Amino acid sequence: MFHHKKYFFILFFIAFNFHSKAQSTVSKNGLYHDIGVMTGGIVFQSDYLQKNPFGFQTGANGYSFGVLYYLDSNTNYNKISQYLKWRGELTYIAADLQHTGKYVDISLQSTTAKQLRAMRGTVSGINLGTQVEYYPFKNDDYNYATFAPYVSLGAMISVQKTKAWSILGNINDINVTPTKYINAFRNESVILFSATTSIGTRIKLNNKNSLFTEAKFQYYFSDWADGLNPNSAIYKENKSNDMLTYINIGYIYSFDN
Questions:
Q1: Measured between alpha carbons, how far is 18 from 23 in angstroms, rounded to an integer?
Q2: Concatenated DSSP letters for 189-222?
Q3: Could you say which of 16, 46, 159, 210 is the most buried, measured as most Cβ atoms within 10 Å of its Cβ?
């Protein structure tokens, strides 16, 4: 628990220092600045049970929190910029992983079912990302309207620590773990790249303060995000890379309104 609090205070410190510096650079060269914080729940689509591009068969549940920085240019001579905001973010994620679903139903007493039920995993890490948000009703309309919906595309680099184990014993023992997962896990830190997309809306409180809510999807260019990677040449059901879904809520402070 202390470990997670440490990351929270680091992110809060970054946001506080940026707030102090940005106040002295408000609106220079037509640029406008916002900062924010967010938190939410996350769900993995991972190798903990069968995976496919459109379904979420997973036992992974976790949370995230982070700090945000927004930059845009509301200039009349550049029409495209009126609909766009650039967003940078630094987030921390943590999740617990466990097989769920019909293959591990408590009514099944086969050796494989018992081994699957005994498997556990954790993921934690830091994401550094950027995305461009598109506001169909102009990015400054939240100054006048209560709701300002948006969609976005972006990219992330992540440093994640993964761990897999079994409550039955050595996870690399064929008598403890199904053959599919023998030598198919990593208990180490990895650097991963991913693409993101999201849909959400800002909710105006007043000229300076807004809330927002969004659903964000993160597609890893790797199958190691959860620490498991069975041989896809043998196990065709695990051919897809890992994905992560966020449901976020947050607060945004606008310097320039």
A1: 9
A2: EEEEEEEEEEEEEEEESSSSEEEEEEEEEEEESS
A3: 46
CB 171 within 8 A of CB 164: yes
Quick one: 54 exposed, middle or buried, by C-beta within 10 A (0-12, 13-18, 19+)? exposed
CATH of the domain at 162: 2.40.160.20
**Interval 71-123: pLDDT, tens:** 987 655 567 778 899 999 999 999 999 888 788 889 999 999 999 999 999 99
Q: What's the CA gap between 71 and 73, in Å, rounded?
A: 7
Low-confidence ranges of the chain (pLDDT < 50): 1-2, 20, 22-27, 53-55, 57-59
Q: Determine the number of helices (DSSP H) and then strands (DSSP E) in the chain.
A: 2, 8
Residue 26: inside a domain, yes or no? no
Residue 201 located in a structural domain: yes
**Domain assignment of residue 12, yes or no:** yes
